[in-house]
């Protein structure tokens, strides 16, 4: 469950409307050096959405800020402070991703090319197997034809004639 948790970025919920990034920065600076402060805006109202993110340079500073500020009051509102989860954007192969859907395009094309190459190789292998089977069938057929030719040579070989007659007599007896 803690996979992907950003240990130096804090989620700060429950912000009053009056709180801006400057006030949020001032409230958290006593705990250590701050790298970034963000309060995402509501597109319709252009006001923050009652939460923000504070990113510290050091994990220890973020931990101290979370321990001290979770449940604290700022502008009459009780704050909720937790480690932030990575930003998730709708899209990607699993439905949600930490990157936009078009970021998957390169890997998707690579997979398509690999699948096409695999299909081509399998088709070549099937064709080679069929060719090998056909050659084997021809060789076996030629060997059978060669055996028949050898039986036809009995007329010329007196010893083979005698053997054949003895075999016929034994089979008839």
Structure description:
This protein is 47% helix and 18% strand. It is of the alpha+beta class. The strands form three sheets. Strands 2-3-1-6 form a four-stranded antiparallel β-sheet, with helices on one face. The longest helix has 48 residues, at 105-152. The N and C termini lie far apart (89 Å). The mean pLDDT is 82.
What number is the mean pLDDT? 82
Rounded to the nearest angstrom, the distance between the terminal CA atoms is: 89 Å
Class from secondary-structure proportions:
alpha+beta
Tell me the radius of gyration: 41 Å
In the sheet with the most strands, the strands line up as 2-3-1-6
General form: rod-shaped
Tell me the fraction of residues in β-strands, as a range. Answer: 15-25%
Task: Note poorly predicted spans.
Answer: none
State the helix count.
Answer: 4
What composes the largest sheet? 4 strands, antiparallel
Write the H/E string, N to C. Answer: EHEEHEEEEEHH
Number of strands: 8
Percent range of helical residues: 40-55%
In short:
47% of the residues lie in helices and 18% in strands. It has helices spanning 21-28, 59-69, 105-152, 158-172, and strands at residues 6-13, 34-38, 51-56, 73-74, 77-78, 80-84, 89-90, 96-97. The protein starts with 5 loop residues before the first strand and ends with a helix.
């Amino acid at each position: 469950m803690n996979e992907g948790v950003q240990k130096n970025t804090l989620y700060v919920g429950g912000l009053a409307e009056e709180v801006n990034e400057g006030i949020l920065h001032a409230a958290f600076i006593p705990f250590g050096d701050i790298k970034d402060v963000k309060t995402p805006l509501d597109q319709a109202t252009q006001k923050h959405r009652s939460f923000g993110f504070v990113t510290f340079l050091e994990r220890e500073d973020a931990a101290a800020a979370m321990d001290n500020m979770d449940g604290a009051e700022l502008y009459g509102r009780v704050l909720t402070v937790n480690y932030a989860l990575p930003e998730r954007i709708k899209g990607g192969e699993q439905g949600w991703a930490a990157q936009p859907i078009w970021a998957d395009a390169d890997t998707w094309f690579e997979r398509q090319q690999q699948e096409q190459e695999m299909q081509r190789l399998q088709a070549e292998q099937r064709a080679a197997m069929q060719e090998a089977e056909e050659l084997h069938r021809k060789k076996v057929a030629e060997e059978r034809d060669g055996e028949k030719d050898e039986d036809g040579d009995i007329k010329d070989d007196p010893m083979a004639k005698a053997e054949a007659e003895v075999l016929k007599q034994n089979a008839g007896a």
